[in-house]
Design brief:
- By secondary structure, the chain is of the alpha+beta class.
- The chain has 2 domains: 111 residues, Aspartate Aminotransferase, domain 1; 59 residues, no CATH class.
- It is 45% helix and 11% strand.
- It has 8 helices and 4 strands; from the N terminus they run ααββββαααααα.
- The protein is elongated and about 65 Å long.
- The two termini are 34 Å apart.
């Protein structure tokens, strides 16, 4: 038997009035079609799992969305995310904007089968990472601290980019100078910009 998550009850309750019946109907359709699904919150939005992530929904100020984790395999014509909203159904402003319940149930059954079979979606390969442009003041500071320079050169591009963005997004010269000093100290210690949040 499936499992409901009280966080989704709370999510629906605090959603805009227009969204409540949309989310309630989608939730009911998922459970009726897949009684063994389990609810969870991912990325602060309600999702449904059945042998892995299956589908999810969300409410915004003026629209709601619903989509499948393997949308390109579930939906006809590749199921790309709608251009006017996330998910495969675009911006849903009322229950009338939803496809018929029978159609949604068919998509859910297809998503269930894909998850049961362990089918995965082939992801597009990422292109080469863009080179990180290190600002002159950071380069100068790193040249003065051999340990920091060596650590920075060994960082992956993502770690370098985090430091560069943090420094260049400073609104004032004083803030930029302070961040530069902190960055060199952290880099010399071999720490990424967000080291406090790493496990």
């Amino acid at each position: 038997m499936g499992k409901k998550d009280p966080r989704i009850d709370a999510y629906i309750e605090k959603s805009a009035d227009f969204a409540k019946p949309i989310l309630t109907q989608l939730r009911a359709t998922v459970h009726e079609t897949c009684p063994d699904c389990e609810e969870t919150m991912k990325w602060s939005m309600p999702h449904f799992e059945y042998n892995g992530l299956m589908c999810g929904m969300a409410a915004f100020k003026h629209h709601a969305t619903f989509g499948f984790w393997k949308g390109s395999l579930v939906m006809p014509e590749g199921g790309e995310a709608a251009k006017d909203g996330m998910g495969q159904f675009g911006k849903i402003a009322s229950v009338a904007d939803l496809p018929p319940k029978k159609t949604i149930a068919g998509y859910i059954r297809k998503a269930m089968t894909l998850n049961e079979q362990g089918v995965t979606v082939a992801r597009k390969p990422r292109g080469p990472a863009k080179p990180v442009r290190v600002p002159a003041d950071l380069s100068a500071a790193l040249r003065k601290n051999k340990k920091a320079r060596t650590a920075f050169e060994a960082f992956p591009p993502s770690h370098k980019r985090e430091y560069v963005e943090w420094i260049t997004e400073a609104k004032t010269d004083a803030t930029r100078t302070r961040r530069l000093t902190q960055a060199v100290d952290q880099i010399a210690g071999g720490k990424s910009r967000n080291w406090k949040y790493e496990r």
